[in-house]
Write a structure and sequence with these properties.
Blueprint (H helix, E strand, L loop, with lengths): L1 H8 L4 E3 L2 H35 L3 H4 L3 H23 L3 H5 L2 E4 L8 H16 L3 H4 L10 H6 L2 E5 L3
Antiparallel strand pairs: 1-3, 2-3
Length: 157
């Protein structure tokens, strides 16, 4: 019975991405996103130093909450851009896994944002949202379920 459920959910030539591939892609993407966040922090420090030198208090008093929101938007934009543009991030490309609809079409911006927002608690609660793949009959994570998308990888022909 699982085979028919999985075959109907995934496009021909694809199957559910195993959990180890998902975790490996998350690790790759973590370092890419971390480098973007470090670069953003560097720009903030640079702007603050310049503003302080010229006594331009508007930039030097950037609120920590605003900076946190900027960092969050960078993370969301990173994932949404790659998922919408090519169905995969750079980390996912290394492991040949894709985020798409069940007909292999590119996901919408709404689906991408939902995936990002659901990924936060899915990862923060000891990765239970990712480990859900092991429990779900259709091998879906919390992000897949919430956004009506699939995480698949191309099978060798």
């Amino acid at each position: 019975m699982n085979v028919s459920i999985e075959n109907s959910l995934y496009p021909k030539g694809f199957k559910s991405a195993p959990i180890w591939r998902r975790v490996a892609a998350i690790c790759y993407d973590f370092f890419l996103v971390l480098s973007l966040l470090i670069a953003t922090g560097f720009v903030k420090v640079l702007l603050t130093a310049i503003a302080t030198k010229f006594k331009f208090n508007i930039v030097s008093n950037i609120n920590q909450q605003i900076f946190f929101i900027v960092l969050l938007l960078i993370i969301i934009n990173f994932f949404c851009y790659f998922w919408i543009k090519s169905r995969q991030t750079l980390g996912m490309r290394s492991w040949n896994i894709y985020i798409c609809n069940s007909d292999y079409s590119v996901i919408s911006l709404k689906q991408a944002v939902i995936r990002c927002l659901v990924a936060i608690p899915a990862l923060l609660f000891f990765g239970i949202g990712i480990l859900w793949v092991l429990v779900d009959k259709k091998h879906r994570s919390w992000q897949d379920i919430a956004s009506s998308t699939i995480t698949c990888h191309k099978t060798k022909l």
